Amino acid sequence: MSTPHSSDIFEKRLQEATETLRGCQQEHGLESCYPCPECVGCEIRAKYVRTVYESMSKGETGGFDF
Q1: How many CA within 13 A on the CB side of residue 26?
Q2: Buried-state track 30-61, b at ≥16 Cβ within 10 A, e below 16
Q3: Is 28 within the bounds of a domain?
Q4: pLDDT at 6
Q5: Higher model confidence: residue 51 or residue 6?
Q6: Is 23 domain-assigned?
Q7: CA-based torsion, 33, 23, 4, 1: positive or negative
Q8: SS3 track for the chain
Q9: What domain range includes position 35?
Q10: Per the structure, how many domains does the chain have?
Q11: Whole-structure pTM over 0.70, yes or no?
């Protein structure tokens, strides 16, 4: 079971991944990753998606804690 401290870690990682993703989008003049030719296979986007999943599941396997 997750603790408040572990939830903070997941939220911090999500915030960092979001900032990195948005920075990349701004750098390329995009509002979304989809028009980017590098979208499929992009490591920044893949890390963001993994981090979102980890944040939702709080590191647990199975359901999400909303």
Answers
A1: 6
A2: eeebeeeeeeeebeebeebeebbebbeebeee
A3: yes
A4: 67
A5: 51
A6: yes
A7: positive
A8: CCCHHHHHHHHHHHHHHHHHHHHHHHHCCCCCCCCCCCCCCCHHHHHHHHHHHHHHHCCCCCCCCC
A9: 4-57
A10: 1
A11: yes
35-61 pLDDT, tens digit per residue, is 999 999 999 999 999 999 888 887 676
Residue 36 in tokens? 């980017």
14 or 62, higher pLDDT: 14
Q: Tell me the average pLDDT across 19-37.
A: 96
User: Can you tell me the distance from the alpha carbon of 51 to that of 49, in angstroms, rounded to the nearest whole number?
Assistant: 5
The token duo for 6 is 């572990």
